Amino acid sequence: xxxxxxxxxxxxxxxxxxxxxxxxxxxxxxxxxxxxxxxxxxxxxxxxxxxxxxxxxxxxxxxxxxxxxxxxxxxxxxxxxxxxxxxxxxxxxxxxxxxxxxxxxxxxxxxxxxxxxxxxxxxxxxxxxxxxxxxxxxxxxxx
Length: 143
Prior knowledge:
- By secondary structure, the chain is mainly alpha-helical.
- It folds into 2 domains: 1-41; 42-142.
- Helix content is 72%, strand content 0%.
- The protein has 8 helices and no strands.
- The protein has helices at 2-6, 11-18, 28-37, 43-54, 60-69, 74-99, 107-119, 124-142.
- Helix 5 (60-69) packs across helix 6.
- The protein is elongated.
- The protein starts with a helix and ends with a helix.
């Protein structure tokens, strides 16, 4: 109950955490089933909470990876992805703006900015759009 009081957990995640504490004769699956039946444990809520917490800092690829690591099912991940992808370009621009704020002047700097955004889970096409618009914005300011 202490784990669930802190934050939402997926069934697989809670099972991994509790497994070392299970003693012979105890049925962990039955306990998890009871928690789900009482609606105290929900993979859907765990997925929603993670997406909401990470969406302003990370891209859809990174969030999907973290959901898989926490044992969230592919169907719940598939439900979350379209909504994430719809706002991914704007999120990438905001992340880029907070970190860099100005267009790269040389290829080495451009590669560094691209690696940073890629490490945050943004796709290559989104990264290129962000850097292209940053270059365009800079050209507009100089005029």
